[in-house]
Amino acid sequence: MDTPQQDEQGRPEPPQQGDETATLLGFLDHLRATIAWKTEGLSTAQLQERPLSSTMTLGGMLRHLTYVEDHWFCHVLSGRRQCSPWDSVQWEKDPDWDWNSASEADGDALRTHWAAAVEQSRQRWENFAASHEHPMDAPVARPVRGDMNARWVLTHMVEEYARHCGHADLLREAIDGAVGE
């Protein structure tokens, strides 16, 4: 497989003429790299800042996206029980635990856990794709709201990251003035 070209921030460019899977995964990796870019170089205190009239922080976003990666690729796509540490969270006591608990975490640890979850998700996708003749059409059992196919999971992940990249743009600019796509 060809190595994707990178933009001036070092983010992989999605293929302009790839098939459906390559295009979706290309955009997902581009958006993941955007989150890495928007959070790099910030201290733990900066990752915990709430510079806008919102409870959202970049640190909370990193923990939330770690959960999102594990939920969709470990739990849903792979059909396993919730991965650790999410399996022991008392979600009924704090439905936003992933966001709220980040204030107790070191910034480097948040980035490291998120990057590890991204790598595990890539491997889980490769395993899933290798075990299905037509992976995008392969059925995926969703614990709530009914089943879907793998195409839906990848499209949802692109949507999830795209939404949070917009949030990250605003938060980063408010924290230290850094701007850029």
Keywords:
181 residues; mainly alpha; Four Helix Bundle (Hemerythrin (Met), subunit A); two-stranded antiparallel sheet; 2 strands; 54% helix; globular; Mini-circle protein; DinB/YfiT-like; MST-like
Low-confidence stretches: none
Strand order of the largest sheet: 1-2
Tell me the structural class. mainly alpha
Number of strands: 2
Which of globular, elongated, flat, extended, rod-shaped describes the shape?
globular
Query: In the CATH hierarchy, what is the superfamily?
Result: dinb family like domain
How many structurally independent domains?
1
Mean pLDDT: 94
In N-to-C order, the SSE pattern is HHHHHEEH
Layout of helices and strands, plus pairs?
Blueprint: H1 20-39, H2 44-47, H3 58-76, H4 97-100, H5 107-130, E1 139-140, E2 148-149, H6 150-176
Antiparallel strand pairs: 1-2
Describe the structure.
The relative contact order is 0.17. β1 and β2 form a beta hairpin. The chain has a single domain, classed as Up-down Bundle (Four Helix Bundle (Hemerythrin (Met), subunit A)). The chain has helices at residues 20-39, 44-47, 58-76, 97-100, 107-130, 150-176; strands spanning 139-140, 148-149. The model has no long low-confidence stretch (mean pLDDT 94). With 181 residues, the protein is mostly helical. Strands 1-2 form a two-stranded antiparallel sheet. It is built from 6 helices and 2 strands; from the N terminus they run αααααββα.
